[in-house]
């Protein structure tokens, strides 16, 4: 079924886009939203059904998004890629709250051994901007960017305590249009109609007490206690901090009695951090975007929807130190004309992705996180690496692998790999361990953390020539995180009869470096505001 536009934007169901809105941009954003709601992957035919668009339109949009690096075509599916997270990263960087308060939330989660989240208001819902979760068999599965209905959460009651009558009117209209919460895929469908009187009473209590409880409002067993983090200047909540658990560990009453005081202490420290924070210096905006989109149009022809690409690049003009931008600054940052930037901003405003202040400076809204961020915010390094390892193996016709050092540094553990279609080939089992010093993967990683293998450290790669097994030859390079630390290594393995040592360096190494660079790019994008486990 086609999506309901009333659930996609802060506009009435009968209202259409403004005259100057960019139609291809509206349709492209719709495709990204449907992919996000589906967990990150859909076939083109499923996208056709979900969006109500013609198949030819879906194909042109996905080709454009693929050119931008936001999706990839994997077999029959269109799959979101880590690069699409740059849209959500722009919002989170401009917001600054994750950077300023995230460490406090992480420390509280460690101290309590419970999940801690930060959420902001998104119209009549709440959206997570930070998650510090516990890795247990039974754990909370919310992700950064997930949207929840206000009435089914503790943060929602605290935000509703500040609502005006128009806010309540909008909330009632949404409930009437969507009684089962179909527009909130992160929560189970509602079985019992929302009780307006109960929610208004919870909002009044939250306003009076300065905290709120979620006693299994979302689903049985899930409980939470929440406290607002207030702006030092206005006194209004800028976000809400929550401790989340389940009834096998804490009852709602127990959360209030034992964990609420410690949550309040952490929130007091967060508010102190906000008072003393200094404005960040604006970083460099994206460069050459307009030129790139024009060149892409010339190369791909009608399969590249230039207005969609230019419209999405407008969102990346924002960031740290660039939280509110007038039209002139948006145009300058993207290289677009004022007219093109203006039409894109008007379209994004219609879709609820940007808002305009009284001074006509534009800001991103939390709704930007709904463009691909949640499915990717819980990714791992092996998942990021797998498509790149497959592409490398297909290009070289040799097996590839990703590995990390074990905690004691004596072994490597394989975490991902891709095979090659050969009779004589290397079979790499994910999870297998080998002595680090006898493998090219291990030597690259050891050279980064100890005085061992100084030659490897100097040249940036390692070769292993039949030291692990007769006939086996491999070459490896490091994969580095945002700090420059080698967190993994990637290698190509071959047989001595197929490649000489010189051929490994001349023919395999350049492709290996390019693959490591692609994995690093994805890792740096995905890990900017969400942790990416190495295994």
TrEMBL record:
Segments for region (Disordered): 1-20
Gene Ontology terms: biological process: negative regulation of DNA-templated transcription
SUPFAM superfamilies tied to this protein: GAF domain-like (SSF55781), Winged helix' DNA-binding domain (SSF46785)
Keywords: DNA-binding, Transcription, Transcription regulation
A GO MF term: DNA binding
Source superkingdom: Bacteria
Domain IclR-ED: 83-276, 367-525
Signal peptide: none
Every HTH iclR-type domain range: 22-89, 305-366
Protein's name in the database: Helix-turn-helix domain-containing protein
Organism: Streptomyces broussonetiae
């Amino acid at each position: 079924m086609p999506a309901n536009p009333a659930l996609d934007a802060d506009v009435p169901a009968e209202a259409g886009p403004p005259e100057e809105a960019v139609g291809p941009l509206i349709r492209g954003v719709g495709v990204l939203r449907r992919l996000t709601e589906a967990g990150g992957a859909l076939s083109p035919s499923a996208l056709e059904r979900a969006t109500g668009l013609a198949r030819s339109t879906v194909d042109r949009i996905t080709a454009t998004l693929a050119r931008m690096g936001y999706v990839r075509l994997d077999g029959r599916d269109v799959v979101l890629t880590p690069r699409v997270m740059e849209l959500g990263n722009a919002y989170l960087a401009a917001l600054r709250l994750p950077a300023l308060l995230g460490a406090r939330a992480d420390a509280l989660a460690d101290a309590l051994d419970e999940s801690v989240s930060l959420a902001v208001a998104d119209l009549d819902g709440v959206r997570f901007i930070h998650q510090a979760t516990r890795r247990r068999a039974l754990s909370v599965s919310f992700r950064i960017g997930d949207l929840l209905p206000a009435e089914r959460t503790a943060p929602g009651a605290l935000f509703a305590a500040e609502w005006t009558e128009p806010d309540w009117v909008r909330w009632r209209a949404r409930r009437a249009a969507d009684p089962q919460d179909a527009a909130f895929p992160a929560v189970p469908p509602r079985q019992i109609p929302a009780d307006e009187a109960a929610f208004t009473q919870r909002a009044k209590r939250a306003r009076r007490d300065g905290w709120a409880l979620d006693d299994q409002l979302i689903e049985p067993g899930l409980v939470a206690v929440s406290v607002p983090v207030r702006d030092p200047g206005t006194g209004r909540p800028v976000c809400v901090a929550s401790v989340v658990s389940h009834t096998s560990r804490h009852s709602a009453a127990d959360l209030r009695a034992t964990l609420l005081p410690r949550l309040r202490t952490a929130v007091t420290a967060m508010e102190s951090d906000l008072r003393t924070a200094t404005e960040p210096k604006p970083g460099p905006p994206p460069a050459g975007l307009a030129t790139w989109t024009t060149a892409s149009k010339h190369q791909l022809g009608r399969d590249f929807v230039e207005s969609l690409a230019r419209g999405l690049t407008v969102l990346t003009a924002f960031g740290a130190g660039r939280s509110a931008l007038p039209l002139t600054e948006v145009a300058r940052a993207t290289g677009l004309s004022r007219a093109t930037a203006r039409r894109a901003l008007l379209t994004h405003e219609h879709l609820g992705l940007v808002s305009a202040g009284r001074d006509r400076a534009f800001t991103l809204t939390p709704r930007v996180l709904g463009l691909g961020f949640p499915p990717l915010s819980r990714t791992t390094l092996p998942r990021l690496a797998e498509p790149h390892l497959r592409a490398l193996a297909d290009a070289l016709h040799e097996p590839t692998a990703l590995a990390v050092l074990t905690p004691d540094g004596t072994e490597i553990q394989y975490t991902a790999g891709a095979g090659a279609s050969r009779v004589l080939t290397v079979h790499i089992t994910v999870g297998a361990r080998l002595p680090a010093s006898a493998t090219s993967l291990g030597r690259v990683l050891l050279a980064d953390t100890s005085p061992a293998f100084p030659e490897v450290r100097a040249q940036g790669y390692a070769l292993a020539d039949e030291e692990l097994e007769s006939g086996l030859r491999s070459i490896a390079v490091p994969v580095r995180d945002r700090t420059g630390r080698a967190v993994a290594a990637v290698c190509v393995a071959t047989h001595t009869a197929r490649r000489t040592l010189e051929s490994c360096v001349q023919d395999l190494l350049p492709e290996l470096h390019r693959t490591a660079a692609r994995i690093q790019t994805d890792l740096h994008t995905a890990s900017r505001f969400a942790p990416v486990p190495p295994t």
